[in-house]
Structures are given as structure tokens and as C-alpha cells.
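Consider the following assembly input.
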Amino acid sequence: MVLHSEVPEDRARGTEDHRSGSSAAETAVYCRGVTKEFGTGEAKVRALRGIDVHIPYGRMTLLVGPSGCGKTTLISIMAGLLDPTAGEVSLLGCDLRSLSGSRLVQFRAENIGFVFQQYNLLPSLTAVENAAVPLIIRGVRRSLAIERAMALMTEVGLRERAQALPAQLSGGQQQRVAIARALVHEPRLLVCDEPTAALDAQSGRTVMNLIRRVTVRSDRAVIVVTHDSRVFDLGDRIIAMSDGLIDNHQREAP
Amino acid sequence: MNWLAWKMLTGDRTKYLGIVFGVAFGTLLIAQQASIFVGLMRRTSSQIIDITSADIWVMDQRQRNVDDIRPMPDSRLGRVRGVTGVEWAVRLSKSMIRVRTLAGDFTQAILVGVDDGSFTGAPLEMLQGQHSDLRRPDGVILDFDGYRQLFPGEPVRVGRVLDMNDRRAVVVGICRVTPPFQTFPVIYTRYSQAVQFMPPQRNTLSFILAKAEPGRQPQELSQRISQQTGLKALTWDEFFWLNIGYYIENTGIPVNFGITVTLGFIVGGAIAGQTFYLFTLENLRQFGSLKAMGVTNLRLIGMILLQASIVGIMGYGIGLGASALFFELTERSGQADLRGMWVPWQVAVIAAGAVGLIIVLSSLLSLRRVLVLEPAMVFR
Ligand SMILES: Nc1ncnc2c1ncn2[C@@H]1O[C@H](COP(=O)(O)OP(=O)(O)O)[C@@H](O)[C@H]1O
Ligand SMILES: [Mg+2]
């Protein structure tokens, strides 16, 4: 497994990629005219009102915007957890509409890693067992899965706490376990929804740095939703949203 | 995935044990009460169960069960013996009698008069003495539980004297019997002697016990005896079930036990089902993140069914074990009330069916919630 550990190198390459322009081969997720409506009639909410966006491999894209603007809805659609009401979504070269039911579930199991705001670790599994779950879901033998998860635990700096239960870990540590879990099956798309929102400023910064350091690689796209302006500087690219639309003046990392 | 399901289930120990307890409680109540019901029903037929050497029971046409005695004249014996295919036929009398011990205590007892020559109808399991001791003057065989009732706290030994209808009787043997429905002492004596003990009456013959010649079907012979004698002739099986059917139809026993068993099912099912459902609700987020991470609905169904089966099997095992232990302990305590009762395999199967139903119902409830779960909920 190739993990990039030196931030400057990463950033440099990310900017380079951008300069060379983004072609279809470099686009991990591509959305065109995506809308999403919840409910009907009076109670209808238009969460997304026509999104055109592409997410490139090899970089960390931040998705920012005020609460309720549709960030979570958009990444849910990008990760194949939610169907759009209208529009076109291409995920890692697959048209989402062509993947249905259990094939979509299988697709998620193989290609996507998740980091949630609430960590969502299984409370009765140890940290390293939690990190091994995506491999176990894919049918990897438990001992082998845990061995590989252990490598990730080292990567996120929690080797010593590998046998602890989630309840015995701090919030920041739990989120680091969640990051190990999100990476253990080497997904091509990593989706993080407000990974620092439940953490204090310092652990939030640590977690963001960690995501920056260990997740980005050339064959993987990383999307991080956040509304924490203090970490904006860590992204290669920032997409701002408001009221169900992408803001026009997108900012690329310097 | 099985490992994950197991870890999730046992992670919350309180709930896990609560569900197992609910299933065990339901199983215990169902198995124990149903077994007592079966045991009581068998007891109504205890006198039939204990006489295995005869194929056919012959009695008055109007008789509806083993206790509803309608004495026949002794001459009926000859008629039965006259039917072709009967190898042998002997007399048996059964009546209630008032017994007094030397200490002066009165009690009701069941008096069985067995064939003078062959002792057919005499108890199979002798603890002290033997059948031939019945030839001694005034000799009777008393059952063990009856002995303890008549001579409480005294050493169990032959030679004790009873008073039956102002006639002296000597205990020459102690036996074990299938406890009767009403826990009266059972006293065996020769037919000719039993007649002496009974209050004077015109007829004393309760049953004629008959054996089919080798190679003859008891079923067919009993029909022939009925036709030729005008008496009711039944095979052992027929009489056993006629008797039990009578008690089931004409007493409140099945209803009473039915209510308890139903309550066990409902209460155990409610505890187990509700806790299992609660367990699922509390883990909804975990199921949701598994779903997001790529676990198909089919595998989630498998996980929930596995979890339900684990608690079902454990609870069933504990409940059935506790029922068996209950009967084992009552047996050892020497209490006559539930002696000779056990959990029949049929009851174990029925309890398993009830547990299966509880498991299926509770997992259906849980499955409904998990299957409609939006995986996107994990971001909320
Ligand atoms: N399942 C849902 N049902 C109804 N409305 C929803 C649902 N999910 C999101 N919404 C609405 O869609 C809008 C966008 O929500 P969301 O994507 O969660 O915003 P953000 O993540 O940017 O805070 C909000 O108005 C929210 O109330
Ligand atoms: Mg959100």
C-alpha cells in the first residue's frame, strides 16, 4: 500500500494535476443536472436544485457551505446511498443508473470508504476489529482482515490502542479508527461528512491533518464535507454550496 | 458476518440476557405445565398403564372410564372365556374402600382384587414381599406412597396391620405403582379376598382381563368379544385413550393448563420479542452503517435471523433444562404430587415450535425496520 506521508509533495502534485486540466480519466465522480427533492406537495423540500460538478482523483476536495444547503444530500448521492430525483451521476466510470439493488451495494463495498460525523463504530468490537469490518464484509478471512487493519491502525497512530473498545477511546481517537476503517479496503472514493464537527478544535485539526496525510493518493478521490473554516487551508480544492446550488466562484488551492 | 452478528448481539449483555431469559421463561412455563398436564392425564389411566399382561379389557357397556365402575355378575367371565381366540380371561375388581390404621386414622383407598391363581393385575414392581405372599390369610400389597400416607414417618416394612371395613388386613408386600390421579393409596389383594373386604353387594366384577391367542390381533378379538357377549371390550390402547379422552372432555383440566401454557407463550414471547425489537432499534445505526458500507439486505436478514436463532436456542435449552431439572428435583424430594412425571418429547417439540414462532415474529418486526432503513441515515 502506498500512503503519502509528506504533505508538501502531495499538495504540489495536486496543483500540478489541476494545471494540466481535468479529463474524464481523472474524474472520479461526475454530476450533471442533479436535483433532489424530499417529500411531496406542501412539505416538498428541494435540497439540490441542479448540481454540475466533477471530483478528481488524487486530490482532497472540500465541500463547504452553510448548514442545510445540501452538502450531505450531495455526497449521499455521490456515494450511491441516495438516488437523485433527476440528473446524471457517474461514479468511478459507472453510470449509477446502471447499477441497481445488490449490485450497487456490492459496488459500495468494493469502492467507497466512509467517515461519518458520528464515527458509527460498532461498540462491541475492538478498535482494530472495527477497522477490519469493510474487509470482513467483503469476505476476507477474519485473521487476515485484522492483520491488515492493524497496519492501518499503525498508520493512524493507534497501534497501542488497537484492542480498546470504542467507549474507551476519546472522540478524536474514535474518528481515527473510523479513518482506518474507511481505508482498509483501499477504496477509490473516500467520503467524509463533517469528520471534525463532533470534536474540539485541536483534535479536529489532528483528524483533518491525518486525513490530508494518509488518505490522498493518485488513484483515489477524497471528498470532505466541512463548515469549519479553520481547516479550509488543508484542501486542494474547495467547492462552496449554498441553497442547493454550487457557488460559481470556486476556489482552487494556491 | 456471522461473527459480526454474534458480536453485536452479545455486546449489550443486559439485553442479550434479557432476551434469553424471556425465551427460557416461556419455554419453562410451557414445557413444565404441559408436562404436568400430560402426567395428570396419564395418571387418570394409571391402573390401565400398570397392567400390561392383558391385551383386552372387558367391561360393562355403559362404562365410560376406568373409575366409572359398573359391576357385572361373575357369570360374564365364562362368556368371555367362551369366545374363540381368547387364550385366557381373568377377573379384576376395583373399588374405593375406607381404611383405618391402628393409630385410628381413616382414609379412602383404591382396592384392586387380582386373579387368585395367576395374580394377573398385581403390581409389576415389588419393593418388599412378592405376589405369592397374597396367598397368606388377610394378605394385601400396599403401594409405597400409600404406605407413607397411612404410616407417616415410619420405617417402610411388611407386617403392618390395617383395618378395612372392620376387617383385619396384613401388609405382606410393598410395591411401586404409577401414581393414581387422586393420590389415594392403592391396595392389592386376591379377588376372592377383595370381595370379603368390600361392603356386601350383588355384583363385584369390575373388569375381565383377556389375552388373545398367539397370532390373533387383539383389535379383531375385542370386536368379536363385544359382539358375542354384549359387553364393551377394548384393547389396551383403546381403553387408555377412551379414558384420557373422557377426562379431557369432561373436566376443566385442559382449559386450566391451556390458559397457563398460553400465558407462558404470551409473556415469554412478549419479553423476548420486545427486547429483541428494542435491541434492533438501538442498533439501527449500526445496521445502517453496515448497509452503507456494502452489506446487502439479504445478509442483514441472515444476521438478524442468526441473532434470533441464537437467543432462541439458548433460551429454549435453558428453559427445557430447567423443566427437566424441576421434575428431577420433585422426584428426588420424594413428593408424591408430581412423582413419575417428566417432559415427554412431544412436549419438547411443541415448546420448540412455540419458541420458533416467538423467534420468527420478533425477527419479522425487527427485519421490517432494518430492511426499510435508508443507508443515507448514517450521515444524520
Ligand atoms: N430525508 C430527508 N427528508 C426531508 N428533508 C431532508 C432529508 N434530508 C435532507 N433534507 C433537507 O434537505 C436540505 C439539505 O439537507 P442536508 O443535505 O442535510 O444539508 P447539509 O448537510 O448541508 O446541512 C435541508 O433543508 C434538509 O432539511
Ligand atoms: Mg450535513
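Residues A 71-72, 193 surround magnesium ion (ligand 2) (CB under 6 Å). Ask yourself how this observation constrains the way the partners meet.
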